[in-house]
Amino acid sequence: MSMDSYFIKGPNGALFLCDYGKESSSCVIHFPAFAEEMNKSRHLVHLQAEALAHQGYRVLVLDPFGTGDSEGDFSEATPHRWVADYNFLISLLVEQGVQHFVAWGLRAGCLLAGAVAQQSPVFDRFLFWAPVLEGKLMFTQFLRLRIAASMMSGQRETANELKSLISDGESLVEIAGYGIHPDMPEQLEGLSLRVNDFAKAEQVFWVDINSREVELNLPARRLVEQLSDVLVVEMKNVLGDAFWGTQELVSNPELITQTASLLGPALCGPPALTSVNTTEGESKPLKVICNGVALSCLLHEGAGANLSDTAVIVVVGGPQYRVGSHRQFLLLSRHLAAQGITSVRFDYRGMGDSSGELLGFESVDDDIRSVVDALLIHKPSIKRVVLWGLCDAATASVFYAPSDKRVVGLVLLNPWVRSEQGEAEAMLKHYYLERVLSKSFWKKLFSGGVNIKQSVSSFTALIKTRFSVSSATDKSCPQASLPRLESGLDLPARLNAHLQVFAGRSLVILSENDLTAAEFRLAMKGQDGLSAWFESSMVESLEVEDADHTFSTQRWRDQVADATARWVQQLDQKAAK
């Protein structure tokens, strides 16, 4: 079932919408998880939407204002604005002839679904994935991300202090890279799932997702009992990892199958209207086909008088999609467009809103080439291409670049070069040494807050790994070939091999406070060719002080965006000579 994507003009700005199965009069509306959980959940949401579309449903995945690919910044978003976005969408669907509605919420999205149902009571059924029952609990968990990060830097903050700072609105408060609107605490904490949210509904499907069999907690059991008195409640417990918070992309075929089985085939009715009143957004979908699979791809065209004929293609990796952690990639593209630089963000196969098999970052050459081809056909004015990638996407970009002469530059952020020994050495130097030298560690040690036995065991294991020798790993690096997938070479050696034959320029941006960046620095010391490349005139480098892996503050993001734009403009100047 094909997916169409477009923008509609919502009450707060242009809203991005993924539309599966347009013709059906039975519609499933997805209510996403909150903040970074939305980013990490995207691909499983896409797979479920495809499965439900095959059963005859029209499935709509909306990015509310300030989230995803929609207009606005997260710091401008509030639950009240999001409710208005969904009420607007529902009014459009009713006009189109949609007769049956299912609200599908994920985590805090279940709270949003309940709030929308109070104002637009159109839902026959509710589908909840791992529902959060109280907005107050959700926001408290969110605040803990900031509190934990502050503790790592030697500061102490409390939840109440942070709420006061946010509500005062005197300065922007960021949590895990997201700026928070002054009204967010009160409005989010005012949301809760209550029986009266389901007054017009007939059925609730409640799906818990856990790594082991567990019983519902007491508040959830009470709500289910209350719901069972007024409608039909069907519950499932699906085994699986909490994909909304994992560090790796998680698949759960059982969840997709069980959910599709719960809803069953769509209710039949006269087909709905297929016309949609679309609007222009700050980006637009770009049609890209890779080996028969449509890739979800968005184009940001450069604006202004001085347009660059060099485009930036943002390669995405990790358990996320083309928007990036704390919308990092979207914000980068906005910045580049304002500087006259065109950029493209895309999900390669098996990630985000793209279907197909996930092959891993070492096997995405076809995906990148398809995007380059489509971009240059769509915009013939583009003469050169720069690949931009963070972590494993940076490494994937290096692996691809030597094979395509159209790629003249690489922007590499914290390239992924992990090996067991490299990780152990980086942990010893980057984590344990810093920890032992910090005052907070010794205070914690003498107060009994350190598990000495566990710490010694962990330290000993790292020492053994660091100084172990693997007979299967050959550190030599032949320069005449591109031995990416040869098992005899470790990842730093393979990266080195590709960089040695890449003729273009590179910008390397490293975070000061990041284990992956620390591993890359150590890899350069262990690879003579890599070190020589880094120090050559073809490479410019930038170290972002204090920054974490994803550059999760506005200041760090701006440094990265400014450096990228300036460097691309320098490429243009060199090409013009």
Could you walk me through the main structural features you see in this protein, from its secondary elements to its overall organization?
This protein is an alpha/beta fold. It has 18 helices and 21 strands. It has helices at residues 36-54, 79-96, 109-119, 135-152, 159-168, 184-189, 218-228, 253-263, 328-338, 365-378, 392-400, 420-436, 439-446, 452-466, 491-500, 515-526, 528-534, 554-576; strands spanning 3-9, 14-20, 26-31, 58-62, 100-106, 123-129, 173-175, 178-180, 203-210, 232-239, 278-279, 284-285, 288-290, 293-295, 297-300, 310-315, 343-346, 384-390, 407-413, 505-511, 539-544. Strand 9, helix 7 (218-228) and strand 10 (232-239) form a beta-alpha-beta unit. Helix 2 packs across helix 3 (109-119). It is globular, with a radius of gyration of 25 Å. The two termini are 49 Å apart. 46% of the residues are buried.
What brief labels describe this structure?
577 residues; nine-stranded mixed β-sheet; eight-stranded mixed β-sheet; 18 helices
Average pLDDT score: 88
Strand content is: 15-25%
How many DSSP H or I helices?
18
**Which geometry do the CA atoms define?**
globular
> What is the helical fraction, as a range of percent?
25-40%
Strand adjacency order, main sheet: 10-9-6-5-3-4-2-1-11
Number of strands: 21
Low-confidence stretches: 465-487
Q: Biggest β-sheet, characterized?
A: 9 strands, mixed
Class based on secondary structure composition and strand pairing: alpha/beta
Head-to-tail CA distance between termini: 49 Å
Any idea what the radius of gyration is? 25 Å
